[in-house]
Amino acid sequence: MATLARPTIINDLPDVILSNIIAAVSDVRSRNAAALVCRKWLVLERATRTSLTLRGNIRDLFMLPTCFRSVTHLDLSLVSPWGHPLLSPRAASSDGGDDADSVLIAHLLRHAFPIVTSLIVYARSPLTLQFLPVQWPHLKYIKLVRWHQRPQLASGDEFNLLFQGCPQLGSLDLSTFYCWTDDIPPALELNPLVAGNLTVFNLMNASFSEGFKTDEIRVITKCCPNLKELKIACMFDPMYIGFVGDEALVCISTNCPKLTVLHLADTSTLSNCRADPDEEGFTTDDAKFSVSTLIEVFSGLSLLEELVLDVCNNVRDSGPALEILNTKCPKLRSLKVGQFHGVSMPIGSKLDGVALCQGLKSLSIRNVGDLDDMGLIAIGRGCSRLAKFEIQSCKKITMRGMRTLASLLWKSLVDVRISCCKNLGASSSLKALEPIQERIQRLHIDCVWDSVEEIENINGVEYGFDLNKTNGGEASTHGNGFGDTFGSMDDDIMFNRNKRCKYDYDLNSVCMEDNGHGNGFGGRTWDRLQYLSLWIGVGDLLTPLAAAGLEHCPNLEEIKIRVEGDCRLWSKPSERAFGLSTLLRYHKLVKMHLDCGDIIGYAHTAPSGQMDLSLWERFYLFGIGTLNLKELDYWPPQDRDVNQRSLSLPAAGLLQECITLRKLFIHGTAHEHFMMFLLRIPDLRDVQLREDYYPAPENDMSTEMRSDSLSRFEAALNRRQICD
């Protein structure tokens, strides 16, 4: 009797093929699970892992893994205790540290990870830049992180140490590294070989008080002629000496003609502060560069694929310059402009300005004072490939224009951000996006609780014209000039008669019929929405979110909530709880960013009739334990008078009720005995205090930041048995 052949299993594959399969897995937890299958898979997983983030305590050097020999990207910026000098482990103690300890730790890291070419490190001490990067002679990418104050060194000394130890450096990211703008140019001039090798330079740092000026930009671009990516925070305000104007912009295009990515933003635009929706969008002064200069710059950067020009003063009549992008920069796919006026001013059916950039896939518009619904619809007609669209602080945009844009881009648009637009609150924004609600994947709205009926009454607009009508006479019967736009439109461009899709533009009943099946948009299901971002004012409630239009999001996995305002203006909230329990309807929600860092209040004793920040934290965190969260990033509110963002006792008590949490990152400080509350969360694996805000507090001997306290908590956390 013949025996049955053993079935083929995945382990029967040749090692080379199996190794390639495991190497293709990018999710960290999936790779860890694969390593637990058998020893063969463990060896293959370790041999194919190329990226690693270390989270252990620097004191536990005996636990440094030595099995990841193929790692080329190493992240040391989150090593515990967070923010303490990496190569000076005793620097925070009374006996002080020495260079021998720093050299030893650097050599141990090189021994464990011998072929690193990409490094991220928290460089609070100059010793880190002196001893660590030199351990890997083939280092090509470095990102430096520092939220604490700059050490008392001469301008450029820190970067001289870095450049001398990294002769092959090709990419430098300083976007989260606290330093001075005048540290950069001297170091580049003293190290011309390294500067000439740089192809990626990120100087988009929110900590700069004034940003780079014309002379500094001239030196940077002259020293780095081979740059392909340049992101730089500038000073565009003409009230300052050395402001960025015509000369600086021309220098960039002349000295760095190979640029594919160029980001220029005023430092004032990098803050999180929300603008006033009632502002008209125009500033008192105009920017000191002309449209002809922009045309010259764009003509000299023909390889551009991504462009950001976010300034703080008016750039008037910018349409002709943006039109040039379509012909002079044919590879451009992403564009962001701020304070540019005249970006889209169509006359009849003729497109102009940014609407002629037909290759764009991402477009962001901020503070455009003269952009109205007609201009927005023209953008939807011309930029038909847009997958991402962001609009901010555009007062004249209404639900009608935004809804028409969504209808025109229903095939491609999956990422939308609507912020600080007076006529687009929560309900009207969601109503406007109904044509793409089955396709949209990422969304940001402001939680300004309006109602669609209220907006209709205010604007006095009649809705209900049909986008399928292309006859000028029929369409011209509708108000606001929309009829001329659609009536004279070329059928082959906009409404191909052979298409079976039919659009019906009616704010009360919008559907999309496909082959007669009536598979409409008009329901309340956002099937593909995975990420939701919300802004909400202090004291307002989250509970109306579902009623505004987000009742059912079956695949929502991540939410970010940012609360902003001065709670000192409130005696107390109107309700007991903020309303986090309303998120229970989103069954797949596992990750949350709750940012209360822009809430200002009293950290200590509040005046009579006021609530201190601990009671406001209780208001915002009440009910968080009912959610099935796996990861939580929490920013406590702040008292700017004493520069304190600290976890309060009520907050610690409410966080301990999140029994499903595995990762918890508190972006502030906390007392040790408050942290011990968190040990009651059964599956909690990763907890860290991160003071990642400017300026991070320097008093490391306080009970809230002492490294010994953090180490004791982490030791207690690691001693626990985790079921999985």
From TrEMBL:
It comes from the Eukaryota. Residues 13-50 form the COI1 F-box domain. Pfam families: F-box_5. InterPro entries: COI1_F-box, F-box-like_dom_sf, Leu-rich_rpt_Cys-con_subtyp, LRR_dom_sf. PANTHER family: F-BOX_LRR-REPEAT MAX2 HOMOLOG A-LIKE, PARTNER OF PAIRED, ISOFORM B-RELATED. This is COI1 F-box domain-containing protein. It comes from Solanum tuberosum (Potato). The lineage of its organism: Eukaryota, Viridiplantae, Streptophyta, Embryophyta, Tracheophyta.
